[in-house]
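Interim report, section 4.2 (structural modelling).
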Amino acid sequence: MRHRTGRVAKRLVFIPVAVFIVITLAFGLVNVLPGDPALLIAGDLASDERLAEIRAELGTDKPIPQRYGEYVHQLFVERSLGDSYFTKRSITDEIIQRFPDTLELVVLGLLGAVLYGTLLGVLSSYFRRRWPDRVSRLSVTITQSIPDFFLGLLLIYLVFYKLGWAPAPVGRLGLLDLPPERVTGAVILDTIIARDWGLLRTAAHHAMLPVITLALFYSSHFAKTSRAVLARAFTSEQVEFARACGLSEMKVVGYAFREARTPVLTYVGILFAALFGGAAIVETVFAWGGIGPWAIEAMTKLDVPAIQGFILVVGLLTLLVYLVLDLVVVALDPRVSYE
Amino acid sequence: MAPLLEVNDLHVEFKSRRRTVYAVNGVNFSIGEGETVGMVGETGCGKSATIRAIIGLLRPPGRIASGSIRLDGEDLTGLDARRLRRIRGAGIGFVPQNPFGALNPVLRIERQFRNVVRAHRRAGRGRIREDALEMLNGVGIADPERILGGYAHELSGGMAQRVVIALAMVLDPPLVVADEPTTGLDLTIQRQILDLIGKMATTRGSSMLLVTHDIGVVAQYCSRLLVMYAGRVVEAGPTNIVLRKPAHPYTEALLSAVPRRGRRLIAAAGAVPTLLSRPVGCYYYDRCRYRGDSRCATETPDLKEVSPGHWAAVFYRKPTMSAQEQAPEKATTQAQAQEDRDGDDAPGTD
Ligand SMILES: Nc1ncnc2c1ncn2[C@@H]1O[C@H](COP(=O)(O)OP(=O)(O)OP(=O)(O)O)[C@@H](O)[C@H]1O
Ligand SMILES: [Mg+2]
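Predicted structure of the assembly:
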């Protein structure tokens, strides 16, 4: 027990350092990008004086160390992420407005990917070289070779256009639906809070295809890792002894599956962070809104405060997810100790 | 009285697309109630394959090709998975080689006892805990309460094997099979564990099949001894008789390779056949010091009783096993016989 609390304590001590690194990265990545935002704002025909004026206004004419200092000051003292170069809106507001939608999509999509992927992995390793294994491998091959936007379009074509089982891909709700009262900003959660079950159905219906797209597309990661770990686990002495003691096959699968928990959770962490940008295309295809398309637009326009804000938020979120995962792994596995 | 376990003409094959290993080739033996039987033989002779066939857990691609395994009269080879599962643990307890591998790493020991007991009968937590504590006491664990609340990785090798033995015997199976239960443990602890297994079987009155390399343990705890070679039992009988007056040249070679009691058996001269095909003639022909006429090269000897309760798979008793130095023609006969091995096992005599 002492070891385990020690491990957690070390992780907590590391957090301020990690936060500092994330801040520096958010600043550094943007400021080493080639290109001059002033040029993009003023257009190619602008005069040199006009450009200098804009640079002075944005602060991009100052030397990098000074800008870094101002950035840190702005974060910690003004507690602000700055304003967009183009819309002049506060980046914090922009992110708060879009973030919950993406979070909801990513959480549901990942949940689907984990469930479907590990199911494939279990079937594949338990029925090695038999038909469930072949079906599972086929699913993995297909979903990892189709690009996500194409998978989304394919599902729209089949499930919406041909079968009519899904609504048109017009966003979170139908065009005529009024959104629920904004509490968390996550539409599905807000319909639950508002106890508006009809609207919850609509929201869930609209979320179906994008969530399935993400779940299918990312399931192959979970299928492959869990298959690899479980294949070993099913022939392990531990599982053999469990069988020799007469445990039911369900219990035996449970014993084996415990081995796969840690790698699966690790993938959840990695993909969770990656999906905040990675889901952008799916968000675009389904007109979902969300933070991904916004961040991509910001990058193409060199909207420095927006890009920095995005990197910062995703980076901190990643840290948080890793910390939580670490705690979960420690709680689940008695062997883990910090050496 | 019918024996508790009766293995009849058991054949086990490992059949993959490229090759087939004939690991067990017609094994016969039986174990009576309360009897402790030792099984020895050098590596690769099919001891584990036999044990695993008995508990129905041959590793793929292994399968029972033919033969029967009767526990209390019920043939286990044809049983459906459900019935077989009920027999594992409750009818036959299995003590594996590596105790660390065998215990679940993320479940408390108490939970593992609970899972094993509940796989076979309804029982409350308190009752199972009592049984587990009693078992752990029985296997010589001083502070069973602490062990029950802990995990496998907190145990030493000897302790882990004690826990495994307690788990394997908690349901009081009438038969316990142990496959080299001490490989991988320290030498001093090996003896303690083997002593413990022997003692447990005796005090609980269960029958036992013990695969071991330790002739001392066999001598001390096993009333009977089976000697295996190339997937066959070549000699079987009361331990003291087999050890003192081996009737099979292989047993003789094995015993002479043991410097003194308590040491591991080491390989006698020569190597076990690869078993990629069933040998023609006596399986021990190539290494036999006493091999006789062409009968040895073309016919496989079955076990026959050489003295009351003492069986050996030989054609000739030792006094007549003296036609040693006729190797040239014999070698040719053997080579020819090997060539026709794809055909039937027609026993050809000149
Ligand atoms: N999974 C497998 N695939 C192919 N052949 C196998 C497999 N497992 C065992 N064998 C073969 O079966 C034969 C018997 O093996 P077995 O494990 O029963 O020997 P053993 O007597 O237990 O030896 P040891 O003393 O080393 O444990 C050997 O020739 C071995 O190569
Ligand atoms: Mg073995």
